Amino acid sequence: MSQKKKKKRLRALVLALVLAPCPTERGGGGPPLRLFIEEELAPYGGEEGISNQPIYLAAKGVVFDVTSGKEFYGRGAPCNALTGKDSTRGVAKMSLDPADLTHDTTGLTAKELESLDDVFTEVYKAKYPLVGYTAWRILNEDGSPNLDLKPEDQPHFDIKDEF
């Protein structure tokens, strides 16, 4: 691993530790939250064929373990395309089009954003454990922490409802 990549991961880890809630805020424990870069999230897409590999899906920069929903998200399942990446746009549009499998919400309609919020709250937050966050949400493009980030100022994000 290159020195630059090690520094980037170290900065990300420090920022994740600073932003991570204490265990009591997450319902009394569980594994620590993790910060994922795209390449680290990809192996959790349910396609590896490893029976004990968890399946992760990210929406709105929040990573959920959707393994208990294998019938929807596992290999060959209808929504498998959403896993192993941040598929916020796809969730908002109810789309599995590869062009929509991104975190970019630019140009979404008010109805699509409302749908995203509903699915995020009523499906992912209600049914699946939170395991971490995507790096794009809290880091600058060069990998340095975005010290100006205020999660509560992000569009369609309410930190108090996330945990």
TrEMBL record:
Boundaries of every Cytochrome b5 heme-binding domain copy: 36-135
Subcellular location: Endoplasmic reticulum
Region of interest (Disordered), ranges: 144-163
Single GO molecular function: metal ion binding
Signal peptide: 1-24
SUPFAM superfamilies in UniProt: Cytochrome b5-like heme/steroid binding domain
Protein name from the UniProt record: Cytochrome b5 heme-binding domain-containing protein
Species of origin: Propithecus coquereli
